[in-house]
Design goal:
500 residues, 9-stranded mixed sheet, globular, binds coenzyme A
Length: 500
Amino acid sequence: MIYPIMSAAEAAEFVKNGDNVGVSGFTIPGNPKVVPAAVAARARAEHEAGREFKINLFSGASTNDYTDGELSRAHALNFRAPYQSLAEVRNRINAGEVHYSDRHLSEMAQEVRYGMYGKMDVAIVEAQSITDDGEIVLGTAVGNSPTWLQLAEKVIIEINDQIPESIHGLHDIYVPLDPPCRREIPIYKPSDRAGSPTAHVDPKKVVAVVKTSMPLGMPGGFTPLDDTTRKIGENVCAFLANEIKVGRMPKEFLPIQSGVGNIANAVLEGLEASTEIPAFQVYTEVMQDTFVKLLKSGRCQFVSTCSLTLSRDTMMDFFDNIKDLHDKVLMRPAEISNHPEIIRRLGVVSMNTAIEVDIFGNVNSSHVSGTRLMNGIGGSGDFTRNAYTSIFLCPSIKKDDCISTVVPMCTHIDHTLHSVDIIVTDQGVADLRGKDPIQCAHEIIEKVAHPTYRPLLREYLKLSKGGHVLMNPNLALSFHSALAATGDMRKTDYSHYQVD
Ligand code: COA
């Protein structure tokens, strides 16, 4: 190997205070695992010596504890984009310590290429291997690595010997040209390969190779389905089966996108069991555990993803069965897995989770009570805005009935009513297509709100005025005021309100 082989601590010396640093990976998989922790250790030492040391961290999506966790605990994060999901980072963002720019995941790489954030100083990329002429087999996620490798002045590669050689060929690396030279992206079905199995870096930029032996996959798994998540899954599948039956979706069905977590898992379990929905393909950003089962059973025919977001056991199972699964999976850059052009062309059916929805169909995915960041919008906007049919999922109530996820007005809006087609809760399915906002309000209240909250929502509507949309500015956040004051939205009280 022509590259300097170093310890993580030595490699971390290349990262300077104020640097823009791009890391590999997308969700927990594929992130670097030792160099960011060494950068964090450096930051601690610099802080102890009375010197400033913070970096601006760019990723594909959320990262792992070795990256976001270590760097945030060391107070080494100044700026963070485009997505995070760790409590420690979230708390520092909400406390104003870390500047966070919550961006559509498909746009992060191109925004950095366009120069919106200044130059990229360092890229830290986990890989399976690198050749002397700079061909890199990436790890278990692609994220924005191809762009970071193109742009960064200095590149640090972590070669993780736990990544099996059989991963070679699972990546499809394609970086679009920038306007005004961009061409169509040649993906016409989820299994089409647009680019190359390796990412490329100019060998002269590789300042360090760090050898690691770190476990792949995510610790833990999903909690088992409960009655609520199971019901949401059943409602989604019944809706999709009916769409096929009445001819609004083609009989061979359409590629689906689904997020991670228990609700997404419930939908996948429902799809596995369904006898009315044919075997299907997936065009998504994260391939979670259930997909491996579905690929093996043949219910799922192909998964295009950005990341193998698998638990440790399922990751091992995946690579144990790689001979049969190799031709059924492609991992692409976030820019491509989430690209509006392809999502629209393929007719992807999007399924994402909401924190809250309002009676007109606006969705809040990111800010609890309008101010406290939870994670971010992630890829939900990329998919929702461009989907064939966009679906939002959530339980109708949370926290022992004290929270209604259906509220008079969302406290923060990530997805406007113009992009939201269907809302599904454990109560049922609200179909917003072909309805005006007031018709949507009736549909949402009667079909998906929890019966406990329907009278309050109906009353809000009666107390509201307007034209195309109804609103009562004094009461629009009444559910949230009641929650803040009493911890219970059921305590919402309209009796003091005088109707004129
Ligand atoms: N009002 C007040 N608090 C609420 C709330 C509401 N309507 N909804 C959720 N919360 C609180 C919960 O009580 C919980 O708090 P706790 O941690 O103190 O218990 C917290 O917010 C998280 O809620 P939970 O229901 O556990 O979230 P989840 O794990 O089901 O995730 C999202 C839901 C929306 C946060 C998550 O799906 C997300 O981040 N989505 C955006 C990203 C995305 O969609 N990406 C694309 C697909 S990968």
